[in-house]
Amino acid sequence: MSTSRHNHPDSETRGRIHSLDTFGTVDGPGIRFVLFMQGCALRCQFCHNPDSWDTAAGKPMDVEAVLAEIEPYVDYYRLSGGGITVTGGEPTLQAPFVAALLREVKSRFGLHTALDTSGFCEPSHADASGLLDAADLVLLDLKQLNNTRHEALTGQSNERILRFARHLSDLGKSMWIRHVLVPGVTDGYQDLLELGRFVGTLRGVQKLELLPYHRMGVYKWQELDMPYPLDGVPTPTGQEVERARQIIEAGRAEGLKLRAV
Ligand code: SF4
Prior knowledge:
The chain contains 11 helices and 8 strands. It has about 260 residues and is α/β, with parallel strands linked by helices. The chain has one domain: Aldolase class I (TIM Barrel, Alpha-Beta Barrel), CATH 3.20.20. The protein has an 8-stranded mixed sheet. Helix 4 packs across helix 5 and helix 9 packs across helix 11. Bound molecules: iron/sulfur cluster. The site of iron/sulfur cluster has 11 residues, from loops.
């Protein structure tokens, strides 16, 4: 990998950090160090970290300071088949820093690296920083295939996200696709079918995770004095999750056929 194109030494070595978790078990394989980056351009109605939105907030840390937080636990991560996951907020907003960090984590500790992203990132931006080279796995959140409903849910179009997904597929990147299932918002039959079809056309998808919507982040909206947009929306039942899974898998089978021709 060339480093000559990584010409942002300041942004590479310092990032704005929201928080960190030394014992993550849900964002990638094994036990993981999870780094939450500050800043996000989306405004998802179900966001459980709205305090991560403001790009000017967070704690500035350099790569070495983050590595020092990881170092005491490296053996746990390695023995469990885990590693590091950088999430947010939106980590691609600070691509040069995250790329530099992941490269160091790999070369110094030999750990598995994952990037958890909304995909709201121009492929050229990610490539310029070497971010995708440095990530062994990308956890990609696909929130809503219908663009009108995507805009209502997140405040942004899904076009850039789908372009990013296609780019990952073209690169043959290992991916876990994640979809938050929100009753009445992201669980329409046609939308789930389209999601499945789209995922079926992607290469490199190792896993498709359906994440049932939960209300654990509501208190943060209250703390920020913002009205919670999904008030009254229930957590999906096991049956609803199973129904969604079946629809997505049916769509995925159709997408796979398209990919084959
Ligand atoms: S992409 Fe993630 S951090 Fe950003 S608003 Fe959506 S859920 Fe929150």
